[in-house]
Amino acid sequence: xxxxxxxxxxxxxTDPQKxxxxxxxxxxxxxxxxxxxxxxYLKMDExxxxxxxxxxxxxxxxxxxxxxxxxxxxxxALADLDKAGVxxxxxxxxxxxxxxxxxxxxxxxxxxxTLELYWGGQLDFAKFVSxxxxxxxxxxxxxxxxxxxxxxPATKLAETHAFYKxxxxxxxxxxxxxxxxxxxxxxxxxxxxxxxxxxxHHSLALxxxxxxxxxxxxxxxxxxxxxxxxxCLDRVEAAEIPIVSSLGRHTNDRMLSFYMATPAGFALExxxxxxxxxxxxxxxxxxxLPSIWGHKFSMPDAE
Length: 303
Known about the structure:
GO terms for molecular function: dioxygenase activity; ferrous iron binding. The protein is of the alpha+beta class. Helix content is 18%, strand content 35%.
């Protein structure tokens, strides 16, 4: 398969108004116009929306939307899923219209994360006007690099990694393995970073996690100006939003960023300067140090 980008996420929320305020007041995203009024839609570039927040009984990531190149690739992808015995649901024209795409299907990876594969994503070219004055987010030409990346929990890490690599055609970028105690018998937890067919260092990461009620470890958005990271950090501190990680620079993708809590309970990384890669001349890495400096993590206390 030829997956091109992480096009959108759908987030379930018990109170979408919190995401409306968080998305505009803190992240600097724009309320998307002309979208269905049964959800909160947030925009950051030429695409009609990137975040859809729907009313639900829980606070969690509902699904990630992955973009395929065209109708031929979409049909070939469905044939590959059929051949592999992977069940999928063809979604209705009404859902496709709400997502502003031509066609899409919904399926689950081996760890139970829900994803949608689609083709024909619309461009509305409605001018992005950030309520916080952000000049722009790094999403590529016509948004072809996607909105950022998602780190998803993987209860079956090896099987889920193989699903994305061998069936969906994702490529390996980097691998890390973490131990959280000095116990030599501690098996630790693995973390696969994976890219799709655009220059972003990773659009997906799979974290070996056996208990994640919110369906996501973190999402990432990237701005073009380092000062915007500082301005956002000021907004977060003023709003007393928990900071999950201090400012730092990652080793593998060189992102300068910090992490904050979201209304859904997972984290959001807000950064700049992420590595863009020529995949024809890249060798996947195994990294032992997650950050060059900074990124001191402190998880907020559970309520």
